[in-house]
Model the fold of this input.
Amino acid sequence: MTPADILDSLFPAGHTVTAEGNLSFGTGSMSQTRSVHVIGAGGGGAIGIDEAIRLADHVLELTKDDHARPILLLIDTSSQKMSRRDELLGLSEYLAHLAKSLLLAEANGHRTIALLHGGSAAGAFIATALACGTLVALPGAHPEVMDLPSMARVTKLPIEVLQEKAKATPVFAPGLENLAQTGAIAETCDPALPLVDQLSALLARHHAGYDRAALGQQRGGRPKARMIADTVLKLAQARG
Amino acid sequence: MSTIHQSWYEAGARERVAVLVDRGSFAEFIGPERREISPHLAVFDLPAQFDDGIVVGAAMIDGKPVLVAAQEGRFMGGAFGEVHGAKLTGLLRAAKAMKRDVVIAFDTGGVRLQEANAGELAIAEIMRAVVEARIVGVRVVGLIGGRAGCYGGGGLIAGCCSTLIVSEQGRISVSGPEVIETNKGVEEFDSRDRAFVWRTMGGKHRMLIGGADVFVGDDTAAFRQAAMAALARPASLDATVLAAEQARLARRIARFGDAPDATDIWSGLGVDDPTAVPAMPADRFAALAAAHRENADDAR
Done:
């Protein structure tokens, strides 16, 4: 689906989403009476300090809106911007600031939902899609922490060996199915059905911010994370 | 009192915890005796470590109860794997539930690539847990001055902390020097030019631009003293703080967005001789920083 197809399928009652470079902003009407805020990070672009500060500014403005309307992020990015300038100026602070803005919006009552319809990697993925309360994807989305050729360089393993190991475990290799098994992706949407109905169903469903470790355990991609975190929490509380 | 200087940079995670907390006060959660190792490293024929490279527990600092975590930079570069990350997530959830302050000694290259997907999710879960703890008033103090620095997702977690204490060795960034050079070329980033790397990502630069709050020498006792002071500072996280951070970070781009080098930024901040900064002793640098730096008080 193209970004325009996605917006049409999400918002049969129309939308005001307008592009600003690779970013986009506006509202979308699911029906005559129900709308959501829309933020796009698209075009497969990287997220650097300029993108992060612009996105965070918009999220913080929305947080002042006391209607607590849902915020929908449409994501198709590459990784964090890899540049001397962005690191010199403190990219880690800018990405953290964006993530904090999304997490605070959620804490203030906005549902935050990311729809991954293209790529997203590494720090950009953490600061956008993974900072939302719910992450869903369209088939063909291709999230990754690091591409296999780069991983081969860093781990000093031949790419053929990595490809072979990737068949045995979902825990390291790129791709939608692998990320889904570790619990990152709540569900994959069906592009043949109206996205507006699928978004309505997501908004109607109870949401807890800690769902991902449970999903990862059920799906087998993260066998220990939930148990370890729960155990530390219980031990700390028991000690008082 | 001992006056023997001990390097924070050279110390391991357990040594750091030992000097950070009041003597005999530390109780570890899921210690090495539990042997909760990574379930994934064996796929790569790599040795596991019984604590998966992180120590978490409860202790007292200057008589005040706190939760403490320390990463072991000498195991897998301190990187976040499934178990490693989940221990910190659990500790931060406890901090929120108990309204107990947290001190985190970072020493990490970021996500552990052999379990990249689990590590990436762990980072996201830790950031959520930091933010949720801070919203209820918990202080989350980060200490950065280890061998591995604080890179990748570690840098993003650090950016969520209420106070950051750094030494000169405390490099904070997202992409590491080698990763930028590999992807964008040596003209963009020469990872072998160590002086360039340190003035672009090192603790002194981060302190001057407001990326860190307290500067200390490479000394375990100095880190403890700074942690005690940070635990006495007010801390909050709400819309007002994030609006202030938005203004602070936007101003940084407006002032320094075209600066070709860290020394140009330092000069712009009013430092008379920026070329003298890298070699300056810690106490003199701390005084210089106090006079010229951008601060992030109530804006982080």
About this structure: Chain B has a mean pLDDT of 96. Residues 116-135 of chain B form the longest helix (20 residues). Chain B touches chain A through 85 residues (CB under 8 Å).
